[in-house]
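Late entry, written up from scratch paper. The run itself happened at the end of the previous shift, but nothing got recorded in the book at the time, so transcribing now.
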Amino acid sequence: MRRNCSRCRLDQCFAMGMKHDLFCSKEKMQRRKQRLEHNRTITTKHSSSTSKSVFTNSETISQTYSNEIDDLLMETNNDDNTVLFQQNILMKTLSVTECVTIESVRLSFSSMFQVDTASCARIDVSNRASALISWSYLIHEIALCFINFFRQTNEFKCLNDDDRFILIKFNIFPLFILSKCFNYKPFNDCCSRQNCKEVEKLRRFFMLCGAENDFRDVFASLIRSLIDVTEQDLVLISILSIILIYSHGSLFDDNEPLLKDPLAVYRAHTHYTELLWNYLLNKFGEFQACKRFSQLLTVIFRCQSMTRRMRDFYRIQYIQDKTSGAMNSIAPLAETVLLIS
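Output as recorded:
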């Protein structure tokens, strides 16, 4: 392109999506040049003044000045009527295909979870057997909603039958936390900060199951962390659930078998991960998208760790239960996702 004339290069830039209103005027260019010169002066003075200091101190101060220079370069002058770098240059517009996919996923997820299937109010805590059995049927219904949701996506329908079963069996348990995040209510909820009837009910459930004292609090804290990151955004939660179901091996289970068509799973996982990133980029801009994505990863790692702990705990409760009869009455899908069968 460098061999073309300036006009041709400019036309190519416009063809690639460059906007007229992002051009800097001569006055803005001059002000920016002055800021750069000022920054160079600061750096030069700093280098000469710190050359006599101890190496560790100079390294710390140098980093501080470097951060200040970066801030100067990125700050917005209110008189310039300009916008932040990460909001004007790297902003991405979703394609028509991506918009259609997002809307389809959102509507499908909403139709499957319009009823609060994750409500702890449906658990019977009158005794240990009733608690384990009612909880298993709650898990069964949530898993069924997710399976029906995934069946409405083309990628899942085209997977090998055995691969679909493996993904559901080993990857669906973390999604119960997502369903709870979607249906969370700040008041009178089993995961809320305030003491209420539902909170005490969940505590009693864990007590009947023989869980540690902090089990409910750790679980509730994780739910609230996920809510803070996702803001209960239906699009974000629905796409994230698809990404997690395709995350083969994410729970590090030694018994998880190999997939027959791992490439198809990888393509689906990559496709929806890219869709999630583009959605964040379009909604928040580059800087906030990076921040949100990083926060999501952190919370997801916590979810996976908590999931392994919970799944092992519940599986042991059912396997070791020989008196209440809960093992004989466990719901079918709960038995599958707990890796009992």
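Residues 50-62, 72-91 have pLDDT under 50 and may be disordered.
(Scratch paper discarded after transcription.)
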